[in-house]
Amino acid sequence: MNDGIFKRCGCTDATTGRRCAERCPRLSEPGHGSWYFACSTRDLLGRSHRVRRGGYLSEDAARKARDDLLAMSREERTGQNWTVTRWLRYWLTTRTRIRPTTRAHYTHDIDQFLIPAIGHLTLAELNSRQLTAAFAAIGKATNRYGLSTTVCTLQHVHTTLRAALNAAFREGVITSNPASRVELPARERSHAEVWTEPRIAAWRATGEHPVVAVWTREQLAAFLHSVRHDGLYALWWLLALRGLRRGEAAGLRWTDVDLDNAQLTVARQRTTAGYTIHEGPPKSATSRRIVALDQHTVQVLRLHRHRQQRHEERRDAAGKPYLPSGYVFTRPDGAPFHPGYFTQRLQLLIDRADLPPVRLQDLRHGAASLAHSAGADLKTIQDMLGHSNIALTADVYTNVLPAIQRRTAEETARLLLAADPAQRTSPVCKHTVRRSRNPRDRVYNPAQPDRMGRCHAARRRAANRRTTAARG
C-alpha cells in the first residue's frame, strides 16, 4: 500500500473467504468501513519507518492524524511508533559502561518479566495504571519451583524499568516517566542476627534460620579451628577478619599483597554473570582500597604462599603442567578458582563443623561486627569494607555482638545507680556505692559496713550498750 489516505472494512469475500479490505464494493456507502492513513517517518536513529493507522470516522480525521504525526519531532514520533520491547532492547545496547553482572540482571528482568507483561505497548500509550496492573500480575506469577515472585524481585524489575524510561524521558521520547508513579510493596531490609543459643536451638528443631546471620566470636573461632588444615584456610581467615567481598578475594593477586608492610590493595575482582566469569575493576571507586593486615594474618598468608610454591614444585617434579597465574587463591594446578566454588566449599565446611549456617556474605557482616567490638569506629569500618556511604555500614553491616551489648547494659545501669540518691541512702546493709579513696569525698551511709563487716547502726547500738553497762 502506497502512502496516502484510504478506506477499508472488515468484510469477507464469500468466494475466497478473505477480507475485502479496500476492495469492498460497499465502501461507498456512508458509515461502512473506516479511514486509514499510511506514511513514512524517521525515528530517533534516523531510520525510515512506514506507519499505518486506522479506525478514523472520516477522511479529514485520518488526514489530520497523518499531518499531526509528520509535524512531530523524531523523538516524539519514536514514542508514538516504538513498542516498549523495542525501546528496552535499544536502551540495553546504549548501556556501555555498566558491569557485566549488571547487564546480566537487566537482561534477565527485561526478558523474563517486562517484555511478556508490557512489551506490546507503545511508549506513548504507557501509563502508571498499566504498569501497576502489570506489576500486580508479575507479583502473582510463580516460577518453575512454584514460588511467587518476591518483593525484592519486584523492586529489581521496577528499578530496571525506571532506568530505561528515564533514558527515554531524557531523550524526549516520552514526556514523563510513568514508572516513577508506581507504588510497590515495601521491601524489608534484612538485618544481621547473631547466632545465640536460643536461635541455634530453634534452627536445630525447625530448620529455619535468619536470612542474614552472624557467628559469635566463639563460633567463628571454632570454625577457623576446624578448617585449619583446609587448603583455603587463608581465604576463610581473610574474609572473616578483613571483610573482603567474594569477587575481591577471587581476583586478589600476589602483586597486590605487601606482606612486608602488612597491607593489601583491592584493585580487581572476579565476578560471575550466570556461570561466565568477568574480571575487572572493583564494584565502585571506594571499593578500590588499601586494607591493613595484622601480624597473624601476615603469617597466615606467608604460610599459604609457601604451600602454593610447594604445589608448583611437586607438579614440576612430576612433569605435570602448572599455570603461574599470580592469583593468591588457586587450585593445585595454579589456575584461579571459580568464585562460585568458594560459596559451595564454605557450606560444606560449615556442615562438617556442625555450626549454624552462614553465607559467604555473612562473613563480611561478621568482620564488621568483630571490628566494631574491638573498638573500631564506623569510619574505619567503612574504609575497611569499601563502602561509599557510612549509613550502609551502620545500618546493614554492623551488628553489635551479645558480649558488647551486655557490657553496655551493665555500664549504663551502673551509671544510673551511681546518680540515684535513693541508692546512696538505702537502709539495706550492703555496699550500694563504691567508697572513695578520699575520706572527704565519702558520703555518710548508715548502712555502709566498716572494715570489721559491721554496719554503722550495729556499731552505734554496741556503743550504747557499753555506755549503759559502765553507768550501771
Approximate strand percentage: 5-15%
Order of helices and strands: EEEEHHHHHHEHEHHHEEEEEHHHHHHHH
Which parts are unreliable, with pLDDT below 50 for 5 consecutive residues or more? 426-454
Instruction: Give the overall average pLDDT.
Output: 86
Category by helix and strand content: alpha+beta
Q: Widest sheet: strand order?
A: 2-1-3-4
Summarize the entry for a quick read.
With 472 residues, the chain is α+β, with helices and mostly antiparallel strands.
Give an overview in words.
The protein is of the alpha+beta class and 472 residues long. Helices cover 48% and strands 11% of the residues. It has 18 helices and eleven strands.
Write the layout of secondary structure elements.
Layout: E1 4-12, E2 19-21, E3 34-42, E4 48-56, H1 59-71, H2 74-81, H3 84-94, H4 100-118, H5 128-140, H6 151-170, E5 193-194, H7 197-206, E6 213-214, H8 217-226, H9 233-242, H10 246-250, E7 257-258, E8 263-266, E9 269-273, E10 276-280, E11 289-292, H11 295-317, H12 339-353, H13 360-373, H14 378-385, H15 390-397, H16 402-419, H17 421-424, H18 456-471
Helix pairs in contact: 3-4, 3-6, 4-6, 9-11, 9-13, 13-14
